[in-house]
Design brief:
3 helices; alpha+beta; rod-shaped; single chain; five-stranded antiparallel beta sheet; 5 strands
């Protein structure tokens, strides 16, 4: 009776070894597919957005009208690598971090036209 069980285990082991490669592929394929979906839906668009934001921040110059992350509107009076001085009205000048600029409303060249 034990001989029947041993022969059954040997037969099951031989069949399992042959399908081991397809089991590995069936486990890895969903993981690769999930990574591809995350890359194209989350990672890649975020990288594009960050690239356009960095190019906008590097293109800022004196006279540009900008909005800060907090919603403050102002005109750039002075700009360095990491500091921006904004004129809010005729008298008030505020100093901000360059990264706190949300977006530019218009540039000095557009304002002169």
């Amino acid at each position: 009776m034990f001989e029947k069980f041993e022969s059954f285990e040997i037969a099951a082991g031989a069949g399992g070894a042959a399908s081991g490669g397809s089991n590995f592929l069936s486990l890895i394929l969903p993981l690769v597919l999930m990574f591809a979906i995350f890359y194209f839906l989350l990672i890649r668009p975020q990288q594009k957005k960050q690239k356009t934001r960095n190019s906008m921040l590097s293109a800022l110059k004196k006279g540009d009208k900008v909005v800060t992350i907090g919603g403050l509107h102002g005109t750039i009076m002075e700009i360095t690598d990491d500091i921006v001085v904004l004129r809010v009205n005729d008298v008030t000048k505020l100093t901000f971090d360059r990264n706190s600029i949300s977006h530019a409303i218009s540039t000095a060249a557009e304002g002169e036209k």
